[in-house]
């Protein structure tokens, strides 16, 4: 693929990511937000492929789209009855929020584009990183890997305990 | 000059997307009252951080950012599960997920 094709594909995925993220934030209907988050996650996964982190992209699709998004949808369905008109969320502090957001974007972009003079390293990641991830997980990142597995187990047990059906509370 | 910069995808392109995602997530956390939309904003912020990690990892040639983004994804899953359990409990107790009306700790 030549440079132009790559750039066009990149801009398409970037536009999908940013626009659907904006829709997540600005949409009044929570169901629309949740489904728009799906496109954001897929767009971010495509950007990960551009960063030659294919394993992370697959993990993103499996964990975020298959796990977190389903959890969020469950949350939406549990906490809003569809018939009820309370599906529309209210907004608080709109003007300070917009001002702070714009100031954040402008300040960080100004810093990145003017003072930040990024020098690409001599060695860049190329091709697939799956093999390197396997090697790193079993050598340098052994302890964090095991710790994160325990953290995940404890967190999921805690979540199941917190959200369980409480018979004593039910009258 | 400008078209050349636009065509060669570099660090700044990914950082720009990451900044926009982060700012949108911050906006959701700051202004929305529904707890679940706030969680979605947190997910956007985590994704922005991940894009930054992977960008610097790619253009630096190291594996640190890749490994760290993997751990970030795992912790995001744990965070989402616990946070939704808390939100469901809030809904059971207060019959709403409006975070500005959950104020019994306030006098």
UniProtKB/TrEMBL annotation, chain A:
Subcellular location: Cell membrane
Enzyme Commission no: 7.1.1.-
A GO molecular-function descriptor: NADH dehydrogenase (ubiquinone) activity
Keywords noted in UniProt: Cell membrane, Membrane, NAD, Quinone, Transmembrane, Transmembrane helix
Top-level enzyme category: translocase
PANTHER family: NADH-UBIQUINONE OXIDOREDUCTASE CHAIN 6 (PTHR33269:SF17)
Protein's recorded name: NADH-quinone oxidoreductase subunit J
InterPro entries, per the entry: NADH_UbQ/plastoQ_OxRdtase_su6, Nuo/plastoQ_OxRdtase_6_NuoJ
Function of the protein: NDH-1 shuttles electrons from NADH, via FMN and iron-sulfur (Fe-S) centers, to quinones in the respiratory chain. Couples the redox reaction to proton translocation (for every two electrons transferred, four hydrogen ions are translocated across the cytoplasmic membrane), and thus conserves the redox energy in a proton gradient.
Membrane-related topology note: Multi-pass membrane protein
Species for this entry: Chlorobaculum thiosulfatiphilum (Chlorobium limicola f.sp. thiosulfatophilum)
Family note: Belongs to the complex I subunit 6 family.
An example Gene Ontology CC term for this record: plasma membrane
Organism phylogeny: Bacteria, Pseudomonadati, Chlorobiota, Chlorobiia, Chlorobiales
Annotated catalysed reactions: a quinone + NADH + 5 H(+)(in) = a quinol + NAD(+) + 4 H(+)(out)
Keyword Translocase belongs to the record: no
Membrane-crossing segments per the record: 6-26, 31-51, 57-79, 91-113, 141-163
TrEMBL record, chain B:
Subcellular location: Cell membrane; Membrane
GO annotation, cellular component aspect: NADH dehydrogenase complex; plasma membrane
Transmembrane residue ranges: 6-29, 36-56, 68-91
Keyword Transmembrane assigned: yes
GO BP terms: ATP synthesis coupled electron transport
Domain of life: Bacteria
Keywords: Cell membrane, Membrane, NAD, Oxidoreductase, Quinone, Translocase, Transmembrane, Transmembrane helix, Transport
Family annotation (InterPro entries): NADH_UbQ_OxRdtase_chain4L/K, NUOK/Mnh_C1-like
Single GO molecular function: quinone binding
Enzyme class, UniProt record, top EC level: translocase
Membrane topology: Multi-pass membrane protein
Catalytic function, reaction form: a quinone + NADH + 5 H(+)(in) = a quinol + NAD(+) + 4 H(+)(out)
Pfam families in alphabetical order: Oxidored_q2
Primary location: membrane
EC number(s) given by UniProt: 7.1.1.-
Assembly and oligomerization: NDH-1 is composed of 14 different subunits. Subunits NuoA, H, J, K, L, M, N constitute the membrane sector of the complex.
HAMAP family named in the record: NDH1_NuoK (MF_01456)
Similarity comment text for this entry: Belongs to the complex I subunit 4L family.
Biological function: NDH-1 shuttles electrons from NADH, via FMN and iron-sulfur (Fe-S) centers, to quinones in the respiratory chain. The immediate electron acceptor for the enzyme in this species is believed to be ubiquinone. Couples the redox reaction to proton translocation (for every two electrons transferred, four hydrogen ions are translocated across the cytoplasmic membrane), and thus conserves the redox energy in a proton gradient.
Name of this protein: NADH-quinone oxidoreductase subunit K
Source organism: Chlorobaculum thiosulfatiphilum
UniProt gene name: nuoK
């Amino acid at each position: 693929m030549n440079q132009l094709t790559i750039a066009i594909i990149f801009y398409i995925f970037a536009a999908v990511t940013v626009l659907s993220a904006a829709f997540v934030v600005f949409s009044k209907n929570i169901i629309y937000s949740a489904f728009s988050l799906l496109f954001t996650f897929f767009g971010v996964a495509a950007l990960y492929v551009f960063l030659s982190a294919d394993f992370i992209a697959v993990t993103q699709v499996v964990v975020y789209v298959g796990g977190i998004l389903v959890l969020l949808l469950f949350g939406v369905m549990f906490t809003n009855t569809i018939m009820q008109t309370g599906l529309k969320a209210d907004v608080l502090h709109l003007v300070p929020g917009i001002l702070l957001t714009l100031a954040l974007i402008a300040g960080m972009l100004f810093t990145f584009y003017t003072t930040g003079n990024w020098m690409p390293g001599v060695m860049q990641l190329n091709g697939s990183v799956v093999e390197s991830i396997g090697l790193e997980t079993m050598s340098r990142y052994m302890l964090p890997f095991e710790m994160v597995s325990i953290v995940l187990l404890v967190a999921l047990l805690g979540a199941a305990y917190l959200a369980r059906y409480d018979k004593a509370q039910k009258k | 000059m400008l078209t050349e910069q636009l065509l060669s995808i570099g660090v700044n392109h990914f950082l720009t997307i990451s900044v926009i995602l982060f700012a949108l997530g911050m906006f959701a956390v700051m202004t929305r009252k529904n707890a679940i939309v706030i969680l979605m904003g947190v997910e956007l912020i985590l994704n922005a951080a991940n894009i930054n990690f992977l960008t610097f990892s790619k253009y630096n040639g190291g594996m640190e950012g890749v490994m760290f983004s993997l751990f970030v994804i795992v912790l995001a899953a744990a965070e989402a599960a616990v946070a939704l359990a808390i939100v469901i409990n809030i809904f059971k107790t207060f019959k709403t997920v409006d975070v500005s009306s959950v104020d019994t700790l306030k006098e």
